[in-house]
Amino acid sequence: MDASLLRALEAVVGKDGLVSQPTRLVPYESDGLAILRQRPDLVLLPRDTGEAAACYRLLHEAQVPIVARGAGTGLSGGATPVAGGVVVGTARMRDVLELNTEDRYARVQAGLVNASLSRECDPHGLFYAPDPSSQRACTIGGNVAENSGGPHCFKYGATTQHVLGLVIVQHDGTVLDLSGPIVDPDGYDLVGLFVGSEGTFGMATEVTLRLTPKPPVVETLLAVFDGLEAACDSVTEMIAERLEPSAIEILDQLTIRAVEDSVFAAGYPTDAGAVLLVEVEGLEEEVAVTSEDIRAIFARHPVLEVRSARDPEERLKLWAGRKGAFGAMGRIAPDLYVADACVPRTKLAEMVRATIEIARERGLRLATVFHAGDGNLHPNICYDRRDPDEVERVLDAGRAILERCVDAGGSLTGEHGVGIEKLEQMEYLFSEADLAAMCRVRDAWDPERRMNPGKLVPLRACGEIRAAALPS
Amino acid sequence: MDASLLRALEAVVGKDGLVSQPTRLVPYESDGLAILRQRPDLVLLPRDTGEAAACYRLLHEAQVPIVARGAGTGLSGGATPVAGGVVVGTARMRDVLELNTEDRYARVQAGLVNASLSRECDPHGLFYAPDPSSQRACTIGGNVAENSGGPHCFKYGATTQHVLGLVIVQHDGTVLDLSGPIVDPDGYDLVGLFVGSEGTFGMATEVTLRLTPKPPVVETLLAVFDGLEAACDSVTEMIAERLEPSAIEILDQLTIRAVEDSVFAAGYPTDAGAVLLVEVEGLEEEVAVTSEDIRAIFARHPVLEVRSARDPEERLKLWAGRKGAFGAMGRIAPDLYVADACVPRTKLAEMVRATIEIARERGLRLATVFHAGDGNLHPNICYDRRDPDEVERVLDAGRAILERCVDAGGSLTGEHGVGIEKLEQMEYLFSEADLAAMCRVRDAWDPERRMNPGKLVPLRACGEIRAAALPS
Lengths: 472, 472
Prior knowledge:
Two copies of one chain form a homodimer.
Chain A: H1 3-13, E1 18-19, H2 22-25, E2 42-44, H3 49-61, E3 66-69, E4 86-89, E5 96-100, E6 105-109, H4 114-121, E7 126-127, H5 140-146, H6 153-156, E8 163-169, E9 175-178, H7 190-194, E10 203-210, E11 212-213, E12 217-225, H8 228-240, E13 247-252, H9 253-260, E14 274-282, H10 284-299, E15 303-309, H11 312-323, H12 325-328, E16 335-338, E17 341-342, H13 348-361, E18 365-371, E19 376-383, H14 388-407, H15 423-429, H16 432-445, H17 459-469
Parallel strand pairs in A: 2-4, 3-4
Antiparallel strand pairs in A: 1-2, 5-6, 6-10, 7-11, 8-9, 8-10, 12-14, 12-15, 13-14, 13-18, 16-19, 17-19, 18-19
Helix pairs in contact in A: 1-3, 13-14, 16-17
């Protein structure tokens, strides 16, 4: 990289805000999708919108590709700098800028860790609803880029439902201030469009988020079944009876065993076929009635055990296994391929059977965690990346699962984003016209295509339509 | 219009689908914002996506501006063909294409009337939540274009929260099929971006909508206060105590009198200063507790009377006045200017005082209806368009209200759209960079700018940035 550019960048972010030593660049080679790595030329860590904008302006003039990065917990390769260039991280942008407990919103810097926000507003009886499994590490900015979900998004909706405003640094360093706390914006919904754009439109530096009142009573129910089928059937009945829990999660047998063998052990019986976690919230009376109805459904199935808790600490224990599931799977195999299939809820049982079959046909081990209420399942394939034949079978299984899911009327990604992982499948799901429309919108934000290149929209589709899309 | 083009269009839509006689074109001169009128050259009424696409293709080749139109109930001039050209209406596209009561969605043609959908799914215990006052006339397609709201959007969210998918005819007649019923889409959220784009991106011909389970118990409370202040204070207390009604509406004195003098008479006492309508939904126990808490708040204020109803017919009677308010105001004055200000909820009382002051200073009569829970108020200025001086004062008051609202951290439009009415204020609310970003996104969909020209984004802003925005 040009020495005068380096000096100019250092003048903006200071010595501590610039990482260039090769060994210190290693952690930035990939996000949670470790199967694909690429070292960036440089990492910049601006402290605020002004510094970020100045960096983007300099890099724009020098025609350098930029990848924005939160905590790197993403699972689809969104933060991996596949085309090299500069990573701009938010590690030094962690402030809560405004906390308005009356109108119930917070304005925060993009690098704030998700769980920190709920901690900040807890004394005011409020919380931030989207709760990815990685919430103790992942950042609000990363959540915005990926439109992240989590167990409680069944009731509260994913990130996009909670973002009220954004400050955005565009490709050339110009800044858009769309930070107003009003929900339904005037003009085009650029804020809604930006959420889930995976860094291809520039970088959000400040985010205005909706805060949610904590429910008066919360009860967590844990039911142990001897088979996965019974757990799935119970969920189907809950939905059909229009019970409205705030979260419905299922762990399968291999996941339970991994959890119980790990530091996340939650006392789940290791011979169980499935564990179902259900959370019910609301007024005392509402929780009591709904919880009773759910127990009645459990009782109609071969349930081995039902536990419940209302005390926050007891509830946390029931949840511990679920929250630690991904970490625990590290014990089963060196590597984990996390699929992120989403199907209409009524197709869930059928899809579960299909994924088991797909893994078995290829001699792979499958551990599955479900956001069952949303029809979002995470089949996790355990493998060893040093075995090239196994890697090939894993990728083939991933493709087969996603295509099966699309055929069932589902989507490629429930909550993890397209990134580099699901690029190929985008052509399976969308027509040429659909992809061309996405490319044109991308070009409207980043005509030189240096914002997180190689992500989200297949390049081939964009290349082909470029001449037609942009009037000269 | 060229005779061969006319013949080609008639070949697509048939004789009944083409309106060209000047007298039959009159109803298409404006929408509900009757202050501005322009006759289109032609109206086309295609029957499905294929016919609409064929029309768009022919008109694209002939370089004719197009305005898509639902029922014409809009209030910001969105369907007024200010640049002439062709209006494409959805009056012959009223079919429910699919009703999936298990996964709770409906796929409908864009011309379906809003209220028809809830009627269709009522036997299945489901309804379509967004309920604009015009819901017996307005269409789903128009709701999508304007991102329409309604009293119950306080609980359920506006149209954008309920649109799961779209089939879109683009400017050149190509069709995007983004109709999948999965909520969080892969790739860019083009569906979310399209909602509220006011016809400037093309036309939605089919819409996939989320259906909502009907709540087991609904109670409507009507409280009569001697002053507006007491009604506003009660709302503030409800919010502070975190009670969660599904709708909170206020009618002021002039509105009450208009209603009681009309066919919509609901038995509101005509000497009341304000009527507050609150609706509570949920399980029996939940409704009982919440309703009691709300009554306790009323009792702490100079409330004159409280009525309540759980029976659907009785509830409808309490709502009749609110639903008929806009119609009833026709009795007060020949014309009505409906403002659509939205402020953070805590600024509501302050904003109410400001609008009263603004109207009084200009010698105008003001009748206000509030979606109080959302901070969305509709100050309605009664006037006579034959009095040019009064018209001038009305427009001046409208500007003053909106600017005051933006200064309070609010937005220009709670639910009626920008259209032509609020174009000028867009420059007040947004920076040049913000508007430039909107223009670039618009150009990505409609590079020749013939889709509903003159709406939503100020032309001046687009003209100025055009050279910079589109790389040549």
